[in-house]
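To fix ideas, we now present one chain and its tokenised fold:
***
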Amino acid sequence: MWFASTVLPLYSRFLARKILTRKVKNEELNRLTVEKYRKVSKSPLIVVLDNIRSMHNVGAIFRTSDAFRVEKIYLCGITATPPHRDIRKTALGAEESVDWEYCSNTAEALKKLQGNHICALEQAVGSIPLRDVQVPSDKKFVLVVGNEVDGVDQKVLDFCNEIIEIPQFGTKHSFNVSVSAGITLWEIFNKVNENQ
């Protein structure tokens, strides 16, 4: 009696969970082809890379941008451009799906993007915590992320409508730039979709 009332319900929940929590196979993910991806509507998000040193970071940001259907990436200054095997290593082909453009400096890219809501991701006086950022529904959201050591250049910060900061509570107060971009794009992507 005890077995039937205690163990069997636990075992049946265990079995149900095992059946319901299997990994999804790649063919079940309904991935878009590059051609289909280029045709689908994009999020009103644009990413600007301000002198990113690491090609692995560039590739990781391409991959994250693909996941959130970012409209375009601007690669500025010393930021490497595709095609390159070190970018492809982390982008896994996203450098072929996400539209991108190279600009010799970040100010040049931001001049092209005037009229949009331009935000830099940086630790600065007067920065806004990421959760408190208001996403305008009538403009594209431009996210500027900066160099791994020096961050976003002060001249670029002066050009921005807002400066966003991800609150941090440990000893480092420093995320990797591709991690920061991923966290921020996820938050902004959700806010954009709430507005629609």
